[in-house]
Description:
The chain is an all-alpha fold.
Amino acid sequence: MATREWNPLDFDIGEEEDEEGTPSPSSISPPLQYFDRDRHVAFLEMMYNLMPHHYQSQEINRLTLAFFTISGLHLLRALDRVDKDRVADWVLSFQAHPRSRAELKIGQFYGFHGSRTSQFPPDENGVSARNAGHLASTYCALAILKTVGFNLLTIDKESILISLRNLQQPDGSFMPVDVGAETDLRFVYCAAAICFMLEDWSGMDREKAKEYILKCQSYDGGFGLMPGLESHGGGTYCAVASLRLMGYIEDDLLSKTVTSSIINVPLLLDWCMQRQAIDGGFQGRANKPSDTCYAFWIGAVLRILGGYKFIDKIALHRFLLTCQSEFGGFSKYPRDLPDIYHAYYGYTAFSLLEEPGLNPLCAELGMTDLTAIDCIGH
Length: 378
């Protein structure tokens, strides 16, 4: 049984070994000189109607792929291409349900499965030994439901929240499943986003989670995924967005007259600003190549802090266009083939840049602020 699913933060937060070399050149046509919304809509419509065979090995993460697709269409103001009721019914079919309230105390997480392959059928007695609910899949499921206008207060949120506390560790971190998985800031963020979307913080001990996050801030101002690890763009986003969702830091900190904060804001701002490279793009760590998705991970942190105005927006816009594919979508590096992950975070990056024709972004949740009803600070 797979105990660890791929999640929205996996591609770059955990791929240090894959970023050592220089991106290989490709024979892709020269980049377009403008944001081609129609091509991007067509790209996402393809993903919505038929999963390309290259993604079939990620079937266990189907909810995550669906989140990128449906939330991407919403960012592009093309949600009318989606059958909202059908999508909501499909997503709800992935929720794990306990047979009784007593089962909520046995340690398993009753959130959402990532796909049908992680929904284990019951035995001959009707008993499911494992439910494989996953934090990242639950974040994606709730985000999709919110996107299509489903009322989250009508779902079985009690089972989600009570069993969510089973995943929080004594140090305040979270595991994504109840056994055999790592703990780090990705899953603290997922837990915070879940509680925020469900408008109920009974699913986590916020104070413990806060203390864990603060231990992850490094000497240079950024945040590692765990205490003592190298500062990383994805980990930094998870830390800052979680603290904001939990109400521990204010929006637009840099404009406040009060200079005190539970995090070292000047060092953090300096670290973030240093991540914009000479080519205009953002890197996830020092001495790494620029990568499309960090225009969101770092850009969103700066947006929350109130420092987005300091970046070179023209240079970033130029870099992102070199990653825009003639087929629609965005690639990780300039002139590579596109993928749905970098496509989505390309759209969020252009939303932060206030590209015409895109919906505005709720930086804390990584989705449109039209979706994130009552999104903090907006």
